[in-house]
Amino acid sequence: WEANRLVAKGKIHPTLSRVYALHDTGQAAHDVHRNTHQGKVGVLCLAPEEGLGIHDEELRAQHIDAINRFRNV
C-alpha cells in the first residue's frame, strides 16, 4: 500500500523496460523467467495500446524519461 501511495504522489515511479500485448503474455512470462529484461514488464490487458488509463497526464509527463529509462536495453 505504501508503494502505491508513493507512486500516486510522484515520489517514486516504476521503470518500464517492455510492454507486451495480451496475446504475448507467454513471451512476457518467459522473458521474466529468463531475466532478459530491465525494470518492469507490462502486459496490456484491457488497453489496445500504451498510454491509455493514465489519470494524471501532467504527473506522468514529469517522469516519462525515468519511466522509460530501460526501454530498448
Explained architecture:
This is Crotonyl-CoA reductase. The protein is α+β, with helices and mostly antiparallel strands and 73 residues long. It has one domain. 37% of the residues lie in helices and 15% in strands. The protein contains three helices and two strands. A two-stranded parallel ribbon has the order 1-2. The radius of gyration is 13 Å and the shape is globular. The mean pLDDT is 89.
Estimate the global geometry from the Cα principal axes: globular
Q: Strand content of the residues, in percent? A: 15-25%
Low-pLDDT segments, ≥5 res: none
Helix and strand element order: HEHEH
Domain count: 1
- Determine the fraction of residues in helical runs and give it as a percent range: 25-40%
Rg estimate, integer Å:
13 Å
Q: Compute the number of helices.
A: 3
E-strand count:
2
| Biggest sheet overview | 2 strands, parallel
| Helix-and-strand structural type | alpha+beta
The largest sheet has its strands arranged as: 1-2
pLDDT averaged over residues: 89
Through-space gap between termini: 30 Å
